[in-house]
Amino acid sequence: MNLPGVWTAFETHAVRHPDRQAIRSDDGIVTYGELRARAADLAARLEDALSPGSLVALDAEDPALGALAFLAAARSRCALLPLNQDSPPRHRAAMLADARPAATLRPAAPGQLDVVLEPDAARYDEVAYVLYTSGSTGSPKGVMVSHQALADRLTGLAAVPGLRAGQSMLAMTALSFDISIAEMLLPLTVGGTVVAAPDGTRLDPEIFAAVVRRHAPDVLQATPSFWRLAVAAGWPGAPGSDLWCGGEEMTAALAAQLRPRGRRLWNVYGPTEATIWASAHLVSSPDDVTLGTALPGSGMCLSGLGPEGEILLYGDGLALGYLNQPELTAERFRPRRTDTGTRLCYHTGDRGRYRADGRIEFLGRDDGQVKLRGHRIELGEIERTLETHESVSEAVVVVSALDNPGRTHLTAYVVVRPRPDAGLDVRSLRLWLAERLPAVMRPARIELVAALPRTTAGKIDRRALVRP
Fold it and tell me: What is the CATH number of the domain that holds 450?
């Protein structure tokens, strides 16, 4: 049986250069030979306990353990589900009930993972990993990515924006956020080094700056929100590093701040359904920020015949669809005519506009989905969760301060159901939400209102709720 491309690419480098640095951190160095042995041992334990196609949950946050888990899962032809360390128990329980993993990997001795078997397992043949994103129906949805799509996407990223043998990439993103997969696996599939950042790096610009000074990674990847945080904290930059910026819209102002701080600045774009990133643009001027061109093996176009339309993605890297949601899969993944013929396309829900040179400029969303600090959030999921509270009759969530990216936040307007007992207060509602939603999905501001504004058609007037 042929093994997935991620494992074979890694093993090729491990056999040829067993003493090369695979993972480097403040705790020391793990060579390719050592990592291969650890991954093979973990894979053997998975194979003894599970059958190929089993789903394995990963309950860890260390990128070094994440890389080990992904390699072992590939070697054993299992699928991996990285769990969000920020998820409250109820939110996590809902995902686990939907996914039904066969086992959970948890940190054990330094650099090792224990395998804990779970009952009532499901099977996921050909799936490399499952990641949950926010869902408009009130429940998160699991995106399934195949071993082949992951291998193809890493091959494309190795070419553009580019990473080659001997180079390194900083790994600091939460493992439940799919761009972390590029940080952990791209270096290991090209013969490079993963620089595993310590806890807190993605939240503290001072820790980030110190890690970059010590290890001088060739590639630094982060969301616009984090880059703004680093710039505001006085980060001087890393002249020897390429900066990848994605997960939210890159503005001209941010591009002007970042370009002098790195060797090259790349604007990268792509939803979880297209496997990490789908396109890249080398930013040569702050006034020229686009989505660029699709990565090798992939395609990107707009729906319709005019200069504007929905952004469609096709080719290498497309996910298999949504876990246990065939109707939603059929709705978002469907054949469309493209410049290369009829192809299966993922309908992103993002709008774009063609420029004169054929590149696509990002215009925003078509629906209630937003990007906040790099995380994809369906406002409907927050609203449906709020409306399950016994004292809430209606709720609307909007994005506030869109004109000021450094202050952009979520605001919830909540209509309280009249009750004979004590009324609902904001503090108790915040505590209630903390048990049900991850921190990034909890509104920064909650306003209790008697009623919501309506349009003449009787619909909620969201525009009236959005304040500068």
Answer: 3.30.300.30
